[in-house]
Amino acid sequence: MIRRPFLIIATLIVFLAGCSNEPDKKNSAIQNPPAKNQSEEPNQNASTGQDPSDAVQSEEPDKNAPDIQDVSDTNPSKPQISLTDEQILMKPPGRYAGSNYDEQKVQTDLDQLSSDLTADEYMDELLLLLAEDYRKYVSTFINFESEVTVNNPRPNEKITLPTNKKLHISILLDASGSMKAEINGKSKMDSAKEAIQSFGDKLPKNAEVSLRVYGHKGSGSQKDKKVSCTSTEEIFHGQGAQTSQMKTALQDIKPAGWTPIASALESVKQDMNPDTTDSVVYVVSDGIETCGGNPVQIAKELHQSQVKTIVNIIGFDVDNEGQKLLRQVAASGGGEFTAIDNDEALKNYLNKAYDKLRGEWTLWKEKGAGEANIKKEQKQGTINRTQETMQSLANKEKDNLQAALAYLESKKEKDFPRSELLQLINERQRFAWGYARDTGKRLYSEVSKSGKKVYDDITDEGNEKIDDLKDKQTN
């Protein structure tokens, strides 16, 4: 009985002792956190003992660090974008560029710069103040068209008219009965046909050509006068390249009736295309108007019309009285009268007329070659002026930057990055100056090659074709 109460008392003491130790364990847990918690908490609460506002300020940079870091730091795998030479030089000019340069104001702004800038940062600040304006000249180079073009068509097989010149050549052939007469055993009609065909073969390839006969119907009798005087017919109309067809058209034409020159001249207007710019008429006749018309008045109207028209009269074996009247027709038509007394003279006259045409296109060739040279030299002049102006600006910019450097050096501490900044200034000058030189040289060479090619194409091909035409004339 004694042992049992003792056991109960001992148990109670142990229980009470355990209860008295519990608060100490809890306090120990609060005062001494696990090692893991101890190592993390200082980083999270590094501002312990500081003003709350200070703690917030110290945390903000960490929270916003990605927003202020360079892109290359946050994404090192992303390629950096490099500017082209043109993009660099197309940047806006500095505040004191060109005529805005004011040394005192520049120095005032330089005084505001931080004293701990790197050479690159100093250079950026200097360019914001002193970079010259290259934009106009770089744009000239970027948009420069180095190809030399001349609006001067080249001859091709036969002489070719300029595309802006629409020439109409009218040949009016007298087919009246008097053309049956012979000269040196050959009828005037046959001689005229041969001369006209030879002339047609040498006409400009793209000229519009029409061949009209008159007086080829009826007869020389009074009863057929009305029929004959109203007989004027265009038997060929085409391009100079097609005049070989005139021979076929002329084969069936026989001299027949009266001489309606006025009526034939009046028909020239309807033979021309609406876009004709120039018109030349050659009237081949052995006599005067016999149908009562007024060829002098009609020739005058043609010459004064909207389309400039020259009326030439070729008097083929015409008597003195006839020549007098036909000269009046030619004068009123702004042309000339030429008296021809045999078939060789007729051919020679038409060849001379052809020589005149060939001479005109020779002038066109020379004009085109001259224009090629002029345009080439104009383009080269633009290149030279642009290059020289850019290089002058680069030199001026360098002088101003070096003046700014000297001022900074006089104001800053010994650790001022003078050498590095001077190197950057020199590199900037060499870059702008060299861009102007290299780009100008390249464009100048392109213009020279293009201009020479155009000049050579026109002169060489033109000379070749003109020589061919000379050969045709003698054959």
From TrEMBL:
<feature type="compositionally biased region" description="Polar residues">
    <location>
        <begin position="71"/>
        <end position="85"/>
    </location>
</feature>
<feature type="region of interest" description="Disordered">
    <location>
        <begin position="24"/>
        <end position="102"/>
    </location>
</feature>
<protein>
    <recommendedName>
        <fullName>VWFA domain-containing protein</fullName>
    </recommendedName>
</protein>
<dbReference type="Pfam" id="PF00092">
    <property type="entry name" value="VWA"/>
</dbReference>
<dbReference type="InterPro" id="IPR002035">
    <property type="entry name" value="VWF_A"/>
</dbReference>
<feature type="compositionally biased region" description="Polar residues">
    <location>
        <begin position="28"/>
        <end position="51"/>
    </location>
</feature>
<dbReference type="InterPro" id="IPR036465">
    <property type="entry name" value="vWFA_dom_sf"/>
</dbReference>
<feature type="domain" description="VWFA">
    <location>
        <begin position="168"/>
        <end position="357"/>
    </location>
</feature>
